[in-house]
Automatic annotation (TrEMBL):
This is Carbon-nitrogen hydrolase family protein. GO terms for molecular function: hydrolase activity. It comes from Aquibaculum arenosum. The keyword Zinc does not apply. Pfam families: CN_hydrolase (PF00795).
Length: 278
């Protein structure tokens, strides 16, 4: 049985200025480590919240020349922590980028990469429209990575609405699931807490969900409320609506306990699906 550890979630209000965002996130990562966090996570779009496809692609850089990667690698090594950067915009070609989570180990090495699978192509009733697929190439691979305390399943934001991905990660022996996000204020008020708690309960996993908050460029509003949720569904930490850091003590033994009480991951049954559109 793995020992307990402290997780730290960084809640940012990122802008469209790459260098400013790297500096702001780095300061809060240091704060989380200073509060004893062994594993620190930042939100989706940590380094860039751009108002348009053109601006996002202009600022997206390939991994080999992306200034955030050596900066966060060096920080993980300096602080001796595991560090998940919730997502970076990484250039893949002339007209597409990846929305990519990157996990750094305490040596500063990249331990895992995950490209967001589900694209947020939605018209929100508050009048905002989003078309992530215009800018980003969807990922095609679920990803897990081994931490000292258990296995981490990586997801990003809109993925949280697709429960099959989370069940797959749990069946791949994930004990923790990351959900870095930039949830809209409108959908967050209605769905954020219940979705994070549902994914934790369904999988018997801890959910670590660092989030963007506040008003961004072009008046984009994000919900905040970075959450740590236990496998039984209890909210262990909630960052509220302002930038900052929250921490929580994590006991990995609670994963086995929750799955023992409700062993739903062992109760799958084959069934004949209703045809789509029927």
């Amino acid at each position: 049985m793995s020992e307990a550890f402290t997780v730290g979630l960084v809640q940012t209000n990122s802008s469209d200025v790459l260098a400013d965002n790297i500096a702001a996130a780095s300061q809060m990562i240091r704060e989380a480590a200073g509060q004893g966090a062994d594993f620190v996570l930042t939100p989706e779009n940590t380094t860039l919240m751009s108002p348009s496809r053109e601006a996002t692609l202009a600022a997206a850089l390939p991994e080999e020349s992306h200034p955030a990667i050596p900066a966060f690698s060096a920080l993980a090594q300096e602080l001796g922590i595991w560090l998940l950067i919730g997502s970076l915009s990484v250039r893949l070609g002339p007209d597409k980028a990846a929305n990519r989570s990157m996990l750094f180990d305490p040596r500063g090495q990249v331990a895992a990469r995950y490209d967001k699978i589900h694209m947020f192509d939605v018209n929100i009733p508050d009048g905002q429209s989003y078309r992530e697929s215009d800018t980003f190439r969807p990922g095609e691979q679920a990803v897990v990575a081994d931490l000292p305390w258990g296995r981490l399943g990586l997801t990003i934001c809109y993925d949280v609405r697709f429960a099959a991905l989370y069940r797959n990660l749990a069946k791949a022996r994930a004990s923790f699931i990351s959900v870095p996000a930039a949830f809209t204020a409108f959908t967050g008020q209605a769905h954020w807490h219940v979705l994070q708690r549902a994914r934790a309960i369904e999988t018997g996993c801890f959910v670590f969900a660092p989030a963007q908050c506040g008003t961004h460029v072009a008046d984009r509003q994000t919900y905040g409320h970075s959450l740590v949720v236990a496998p039984w569904g209890e909210v262990l930490a909630d960052a509220g609506s302002e930038p900052g850091v929250v921490t929580a003590r994590i006991d990995p033994a609670l994963v086995a306990e929750a799955r023992r009480m409700v062993p739903a991951l062992t109760h799958d049954r084959a069934f004949e699906a209703v045809p789509e559109g029927a």
